[in-house]
Design brief:
alpha/beta; seven-stranded parallel beta sheet; two-stranded parallel sheet; binds nicotinamide-adenine-dinucleotide
Amino acid sequence: MRVLVTGGAGFLGSHLCDALLAEGHSVVCADNLLTGRMANLEHLLDEARFEFVEQDVCRAFDPGKIDYVFHFASPASPADYLKHGIETLQVGSAGTLNCLELARQHHARFLLASTSECYGDPLEHPQRESYWGHVNPVGPRSVYDEAKRFSEAVTMAYHRYHQVDTRIVRIFNTYGPRMQINDGRVIPNFLWQALRGENLTVYGDGSQTRSFCYVSDEVEGILRLARSAEHAPVNVGNPTEFTILECARKVIATTGSASQIKFEALPQDDPKQRCPDISKAQQLLGWEPKVDLESGLRLSLEYFKKAVAKDAAAAR
Ligand SMILES: NC(=O)c1ccc[n+]([C@@H]2O[C@H](COP(=O)([O-])OP(=O)(O)OC[C@H]3O[C@@H](n4cnc5c(N)ncnc54)[C@H](O)[C@@H]3O)[C@@H](O)[C@H]2O)c1
């Protein structure tokens, strides 16, 4: 297949490009580098089956004949979407519409990277796909949550009205190499602080829970969904829950850091609990995560050490 990956210069998109190329496909990556980096794609630039196009997907474009669209373009970390609120709403609306139009015109299949943020600060726990969510439509995080909820709605509309063959994956907290080191998400934040010998910042009392999925597990789940015939949303994430405090302690243990934990006020709309119910993915895709948090942290360590060293060298 010739596959379009939007947002392919980002963390998840670049791993997806690797996996699609490894399966023998040709990949066109469209990215405007708003939050992504060419460094994530450096290793692919000599690959004959890989093309990079610097492109804002909110503007009309045509990558030529394509068989599948993986729409991953969107700021994803809270730091990024709070900084680029309007761009986040644009890529979730105009960007998703453009990508769906491409899929329709080329008779291509389409997969939307959606998010557990669609559930907001959930009242149901763990979250099943049937839960409609508890989102503040005017809070600071709404630029992301509502953009993704619109993306899901318009994806279902293209399926219903134009018979586009669509999929929606609700991605839960994923981590691993190539994340931005200082993007405010829990794991990179803790690794960054621990490797620099700084104290780890825990918001609130640290009893809020999160579940963390290692990137190779996430990509495997996404590819299985892409091959399936399911049009309704499917959760793909790791259901093993940790409190933020437990996670901080695991990062300190993995890095061997002497850092301590410091507590700060909880940001507005910070979800108290977030954990996927993955029974649908298990039954439908035969998928479940294999990499536990300790192993995933160890697999990520080398990348984060290099990134911290590079940052320190640049600051000198
Ligand atoms: N990483 C996670 O834990 C997670 C969780 C839930 C959902 N997701 C979703 O997965 C996707 C990828 O997330 P990520 O963690 O890799 O984030 P990322 O910021 O590393 O990657 C996003 C990419 O999209 C690009 N982009 C943004 N706006 C664009 C535009 N208008 N045109 C073209 N490219 C644009 C950025 O430059 C970047 O390369 C996002 O859609 C995100 O919402 C990620």
